[in-house]
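User: For my dataset I need records formatted as: sequence, then structure tokens, nothing else. Please produce one.
Assistant:
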Amino acid sequence: MIYSAFFGLLWNALQDLTLKILIVASFVSIIIQVSTAHDDEERNIAWIDGFAIFVAVLVCSLVAAVNDYEKELQFKKLNSVADSRRQITVIRKGHIKSIHFSDLVVGDLVQIQEGMDIPADGFIIEASDVLTDESAMTGETDPVKKDSLEKCIRKRNIVIEEGSKNTSNAHTLPSPILLSGTKIMAGEGYFIIIVVGDDSCVGKIESLLREQEPEMTPLQKKLDSIANDIGKFGLISAIFIICVLLLRFTIDRAMEGLWDNSKHWEEILNFFIIGVDFSF
């Protein structure tokens, strides 16, 4: 598994267009220089230039793959630490258990603790001075009171009897509903899980996010545009340099009237390598 992940990152690093061109150029260089060597002694060292290009590409790809692999390992460690904290105390079938958020099912009775994150939508059964932070879901920073349904109804009737129904705000009356993705600020009690997974509030949001392609930030768009411009400039410059060198080479050969396969094909190949190196 480890090796497959690393080689996958190495393969991704080799997908760069410039590296592909350099790899092809290295093999072409080896083939031409070895095939056009004058004798065995020259043939024994003719492959060195092409092989050096291949080694340089391999080293660059390995460095990029190692860096990406180390980042992935660090990310996995951070995830494992965060995942170990996603434990919650529940009462299931009369037994108190500490389970992971992902193992919650509808009907579990969860103990409310100060500072805990609400893992699923729930309905309060018993509560004492419970306040929640629902800013992650609603954007409102004011704490929201939570209580059992019976106490919520009693409080509502008191407000109606006092005639303050039209003057009270949204946070005057407590609510028996706990939303997943919110946080307990204070209080204690119990609530029962009523919705889990993709049907919960936070689950619906995550489902929508999974369906949408992540948008690039303005900074990423700007950097991507600059990188494309630099790539285009390098490509155009490389083509221009190769064309100038080939034009000069053609004029020289026409004036001299000479052609040496072993020498001139290698010289033409060097023109392309110079152009590729410039673009790189």
